[in-house]
Specification:
Elements: E1 2-6, E2 14-17, E3 28-37, H1 40-47, E4 58-59, E5 64-71, E6 83-86, E7 100-103, E8 106-109, E9 119-123, E10 127-129, H2 136-139, H3 145-157, E11 165-168, H4 172-183, E12 189-193, H5 196-204, E13 209-212, H6 218-226, E14 231-236, H7 241-250, E15 251-259, E16 281-284, H8 292-304, E17 314-319, H9 323-332, E18 338-342
Parallel strand pairs: 11-12, 11-14, 12-13, 14-15, 15-16, 17-18
Antiparallel strand pairs: 1-2, 1-4, 3-5, 3-9, 3-18, 5-6, 6-10, 7-8
Length: 343
């Protein structure tokens, strides 16, 4: 197999060949990957936003699609030849032992799912069978971007028809949050981001208004859009503590602040907590609390019946050998939507 390996934090990934284990253990599934998305989480892992990484060198990636090549003992939810989505949230089946790969005599660690690789040993509960006729390129986004985005609206924000929402950060997850908010008939849906290309895409996918946060008066712009209306939901995808604090102050006394982005280790928010006793809420999202085994088939059926689609969401694709260029494109804001790696 070929894989992109994180050898040192804050360094480029190394693309090289690894040796697969000779046999599968209980609950393990060998998958030939076709596509992988890149999530901000992987950039955070590379940058070490959660501190020192004790598992280096290791593989990365937590949303992808592929075909099952082989199943290990005890596996019942998928079989050889199945089309599958790979996801980081737990689904049905066994949670296996994570695999270890050989790299020129050195052990390379991996979690229950990795997708920056042409093949991977995946824990059964991190892969969900999908219809064979679904685009594998689109299917990769169901591993995180779609399920997290929709789950944030359904399970964390519990957004209702006609409620107002600000989505701060219009990357892959933010754009799906906006799509889900549109399906809920929220109004207004205000997308905020540093890059106009992302905001243009956000409006195509359902945002009623857009605000560029590089403008110093962006908070005034948000308040002018709301006018005298209270803000029901503020969703932060950035992990920036000053934005989180702003969102907390902006929502109504009964409003909900949803934290999708995670601040760097050691960075804390400073808020006046009294309103929390009277209905204001802060909720940290963990992948939108989605259940992949139930939610992925449900969201696919909605897409097949024309309720929403992924057209325009994938804006760039790269080969695995050029994955560092893809990551750079995300960092600089060149990428409007989701980046896909073709495996």
């Amino acid at each position: 197999m070929k894989a992109a390996i994180l050898v040192n934090q804050k360094k480029k990934l190394i693309v090289d060949e690894l040796d697969l284990p000779t046999s599968l253990k209980v609950g393990q599934v060998l998958v030939k990957l076709e596509y992988s998305g890149i999530c901000g989480t992987q950039i955070g892992e590379i940058d070490g936003v959660k501190g020192e990484d004790k598992f280096l060198p290791h593989l990365l990636g937590h949303e992808g699609s592929g075909i099952v090549e082989k199943v290990g003992p005890g596996v019942k939810t998928v079989r050889e030849g199945d089309s599958v989505v790979l996801h980081w949230r737990q689904g049905n089946g066994i949670q296996s032992e994570p695999p270890k790969y050989n790299w020129n005599g050195k052990t390379v660690n991996a979690g229950w799912v990795t997708t920056f690789n042409t093949k991977a040993i995946i824990s059964e509960n991190r892969c969900t069978k999908i219809p064979a006729n679904i685009s594998k390129e689109d299917a990769a986004l169901f591993g995180c971007a779609v399920t997290t985005g929709f789950g944030v609206i359904e399970n964390n924000a519990k957004l209702k028809m006609g409620e107002s929402i600000v989505v701060f950060g219009a990357g892959g997850i933010g754009l799906n949050i906006i799509q889900a908010a549109r399906l809920t008939s929220a109004w207004p849906i205000i997308a905020v981001d540093l890059f106009d290309n992302r905001l243009d895409l956000a409006k195509k996918l359902g945002a009623t208004h857009s605000v560029n946060s590089s403008n110093k008066s962006y908070l005034d712009e948000i308040e002018n859009i709301l006018k005298d209306r209270e803000l029901d939901v503020f969703i932060d995808n950035t992990g920036n503590t000053s934005i989180i604090e702003m969102g907390y102050n902006l929502i109504s006394d009964q409003g909900r602040l949803i934290l999708v982005g995670v601040p760097k280790t050691g960075e804390n928010i400073n808020i006046f907590s009294l309103p929390l006793h009277f209905g204001k809420k802060i909720t940290g999202s963990f992948g939108g609390e989605c259940n992949p085994a139930k939610d992925i088939p449900r969201f696919i059926k909605m897409m097949q019946n024309g309720l929403w689609d992924l057209k325009g969401l994938i804006t760039e694709s790269y080969d695995l050998e050029n994955i560092n260029e893809a990551i750079f494109s995300m960092r600089t804001g060149k990428t409007s939507g989701r980046v896909i790696i073709k495996l």
